[in-house]
Amino acid sequence: MIETRIVDSDTEHEDALAVRHAVFVEEQGVDEDLEYDEYDANAVHVVAYDGSDPVGAARLRELEDGAGKVERVAVLEPRRGEGIGRKLMAVLEKRARADGFDELKLHSQTHAAGFYAEVEYERYGEEFEEAGIPHVRMRKKL
Predict the structure, then answer these.
(1) Total domain count for the chain?
(2) Domain that holds residue 115
(3) What is the pLDDT of residue 29?
(4) pLDDT at 51
(5) CATH number of the domain to which 77 belongs
């Protein structure tokens, strides 16, 4: 059974970073200097566990315009399609509401935009490149 929770320990934070490393750095070839940034220290991180094994992660931070930004949503490749991404998003959205955000934004890799559309995010603006990967901007009113 998958348990998804807000990070509240160094070990859980390390688990979130390990999932991100596996997905973004190892699988997708994103430079580590781009993957880990100044926002990690103050963002709200979420980790999905299968027993004691971390299988998914994501983070939430506040933007200057007062909206929340969902970032670094990652599920280990063999675990995709099991609803783990939806569970991560539900926890982040619940936290965002509790923190007073009325809108969430994100940059989706173009291949993942359909997933975000299924959880009611809408695309806006033009396609752009980030970390060498095509992305689109998406948002959702809470």
Answers:
(1) 1
(2) 2-141
(3) 92
(4) 96
(5) 3.40.630.30
Count CA atoms closer than 13 A to 37's CA, side-chain side. 11
**3: closest CA among 128, 72, 88?**
88
Strand-pairing partners, residue 134, are: 129
Maximum distance among all Cα pairs of the chain, rounded to whole angstroms: 40
Length, in residues, of the chain: 142
Strand (E) or helix (H) holding 62 = strand 53-62
Rounded Cα distance between 122 and 9, Å, is 33
pLDDT digit string, tens, across residues 89-109: 999 999 999 999 999 999 999
For residues 125 and 79, give the distance between their C-alpha atoms in angstroms, rounded to a whole number. 31
The CA angle 49-59-102, to the nearest 5 degrees, is: 120
Is the model's pTM score more than 0.90? yes
- For residue 73, the one-letter residue type is V
What parts of the chain have a pLDDT lower than 70? none
Q: Is the dihedral of CA 20, 23, 34, 89 positive or negative?
A: negative
